[in-house]
Amino acid sequence: MTELAITVNGEPRRITGPATVADLLRKLQLDPRTVVVELNRQIIRRAVLGETKLGDGDAVELVHFVGGG
Amino acid sequence: MTTIPVETFTDTPLSIGGRQFRSRLMVGTGKYRDNAVMARALEASGADIVTVAVRRVDLDRTREEGILYHLRPEDYFLLANTAGCYTAEEAIRYARLAREAGFNEFIKLEVIGDRDTLLPDTEGLLTAARQLTKEGFVVLAYTNDDLVTALRLEQAGCAAVMPLASPIGSGLGLLNPYSIRTIKSRLSVPVIVDAGVGTASDACLTMEQGVDGILMNTALAEASDPVAMATAMRLAVDAGRLAFLAGRMPRREIAVPSSPVRGMLG
User: Fold this and answer.
1) Residue B67 — very low, low, confident or very high, per pLDDT cuts 50/70/90?
2) Nearest to B52 by CA among B3, B104, B16, B14
3) Which of A8, A41, A66 has its CB closest to that of B59?
4) Which residues are within 8 A (CB) of A9 and not within 5 positions of it... i.e. 6 or more apart?
5) Which of B40, B55, B124, B222 is 20 to 30 A from B134 in CA distance terms?
6) Residues B91, B94, B99, CA angle at the centre, nearest 5°?
7) How far apart (Å, rounded) are the C-alpha atoms in residues B258 and B13?
8) CB within 8 Å of B246: residues ≥ 6 apart
9) Average pLDDT, integer, range A37-52
10) Is position B184 annotated as part of the catalytic site?
11) Is there a contact between B97 and A68 if contact means CB atoms under 8 Å apart?
12) Residues B79/B52, Cβ–Cβ less than 8 Å
């Protein structure tokens, strides 16, 4: 067990490794169907969230649709 | 309320990027005081297309949840925007994220060039438009009321060009009907006027220029009664469209009597 220091939406976070992006979403209580994930500027498709491993220093962006014009 | 028998007139449906839409009024989902009012206003507007923005999920849940908690995505065609982007690279990044949400490949492309006026950066806009059309996006480009830029956006493969009536959120109405008419007369792709419409007469006047539709947000969201204003806008867009199709009388600098001049008492 290692602790990974990552950045999620610009904020530093720690997550117990090894962990995948799907694990992170679960920890944040986010439904993968309602968010789009970018890992180090690369979009991670929903189908591969469970097999995409997080590494120390990774930057994750989690976005969704909000009201806009 | 009076029902206008719009269905007695024939109009071709609005077609953008191979999809057909019933309503020529598109509405935004930003800035509403509360989401229940927004949902009712969207319904009253009769819009098929509603715009949404791409933003970070609030991990502290201190603000409202995503927009899809407040409107049924199956009831509307979701048009994601790249609002808030100041470079082509940034807009392309947002567009790719929006597409990954999995609804459609349409993007309302905005590349803003000035923080005070939110006027577009036309150079960045063209760069982003060329790249995104290459990647298979259906690009609807928010632009200023400049004919040459509009022509270049069409040439870049945009599915629709969206010139402004006046700056975003200004409510100043249609500042340059001539430019809008000129753009409409020269483009083959749909011309949707986006931004600046403040009230129903602005919407009507805009549609009377012959454009294919209008997109508005603040005019509804900031009205004292957004649901009533949405209804007014729906009627105004229909009225302006019908007036355009009907063909207005010529403007004359002299009076012409409407009653016979013959038969007056001697």
Assistant:
1) confident
2) B104
3) A8
4) A60, A61, A62, B56, B57, B59
5) B55
6) 125
7) 36
8) none
9) 96
10) no
11) no
12) yes
Which candidate, A64, A61, A45, A63, places its Cα nearest to that of A6?
A61
Which pair of tokens denotes residue A39? 């890992």
Residues contacting residue A5 through CB under 8 Å, at least 6 positions apart: A12, A13, A14, A56, A57
State which amino acid sits at residue B105: E
Over the stretch B203-251, which tens digit does the pLDDT of each residue have? 999 999 999 999 999 999 999 999 999 999 999 999 999 999 999 999 9
Report ipTM for this prediction.
0.94
| pTM metric for this prediction | 0.91
B72 touches chain A (CB under 8 A): no
Q: How far apart are CA B108 and CA B128, in angstroms?
A: 11
pLDDT in tens, B68-96: 888 888 999 999 999 999 999 999 999 99
Nearest CA in chain B to A13: B59
For B196-206, give one letter per residue: b (16+ CB within 10 A) or e: bbbebebbbbb
Tell me the pLDDT tens digit for each residue of B16-56. 999 999 999 999 999 999 999 999 999 999 999 999 999 99
List the catalytic residue out of B31, B108, B134, B184. Answer: B108
Residue of A nearest to B142 (CA): A69
Bridge-based pairing state of the strands B213-216 and B49-56: unpaired
DSSP letters for B72-97: -GGGSEEEEE-TT--SHHHHHHHHHH
* φ and ψ of B250, to 5 deg: -70, 150
Q: How many helices (H) and strands (E) does chain A have?
A: 1, 5
Answer whether B53 sits within 8 Å of A66, measured CB to CB. Answer: yes
Instruction: Classify the phi-psi angles of B136: left when phi > 0, otherwise alpha if psi is within -120 to 50, otherwise beta.
Output: left
Q: How many CB atoms lie within 10 A of CB A49?
A: 19
